[in-house]
Amino acid sequence: MQSKGMKSGNLLKRRLPVFLAAVVLLVCASCGTQAKEDWDDLKIEYDRFLLAEVAQSMDNYLTIYGYLSDSLLELSEDPANSQLQEKLVGALEGIYAAKMYNSGMERQLFEAYSDNHQELCSVMQDASLSYLFSDGTDIPFFSMSPEQLEEVSRIYYALSYSFYRSNSASFASLIIDQEFETEEFQAALGKTKDWLSELNEFIQFDP
CA nearest 110: which of 162, 58, 66? Predict the structure, then answer.
């Protein structure tokens, strides 16, 4: 999971600015036939790039939330288990390193893909902060009761299902299909926002 996330982050960090620069150059070019064809070709490639990166991002959320749900459910059965704690710390450090390396780029990705849909971008910003813990000595899970760990595990499971693209009605699928103005999208976005709010009652997201 760590290497896959880092690889995706590196690719996004390299390619998104290149695509944006190319778009600017073509906008400034003449409106001749060749320029129009070049623009159309670049637009198709750019849209494909955005779609692939958004799909990868959805899958990363699914994987991370699913892992946290399983890990915290296991930890709830034995909260003082040092091996489980160390395993979780290692995973969280890897996630943090991969995500922070790509800091700011993911928001630009969703702004570009959704034509700057502010509510979606705000929810995705909260989602990106909902599992980032940089200090292994201050991970909030280790001070939770078994009942609290079970509850947080449940919320992470709900969030993982929200990012399950194989469900055509999921938040992730509606994002992929760019169904931003539909009632279905608003309902899925509202559910995801509610789950993040529930999670924030247990975990104070970093600003």
Answer: 58
Coil, strand, or helix at residue 117? coil
Helix runs in the chain, H state only = 2-28, 33-76, 82-101, 105-113, 118-129, 146-162, 171-176, 183-202
- Res 161: pLDDT: 95
Backbone phi and psi for residue 32, each to the nearest 5 degrees, phi listed first? -70, 175
Q: Which two tokens stand for residue 129?
A: 């902060």
**CB neighbours of 178 closer than 8 A, spacing ≥ 6?**
113, 114
Measured CA to CA, the distance from residue 203 to residue 186 in angstroms comes to 25
Q: pTM value?
A: 0.81
For 181, the token pair is 């103005």
The whole-number pLDDT of residue 77 equals 96
Tell me 180's DSSP state.
Answer: T
Task: Tell me the per-residue pLDDT of 77-115, one tens digit each, with 9 for 90 and over.
Answer: 999 999 999 999 999 988 888 877 766 788 899 999 999
Contacts of 78 (CB under 8 A, 6+ apart): 84
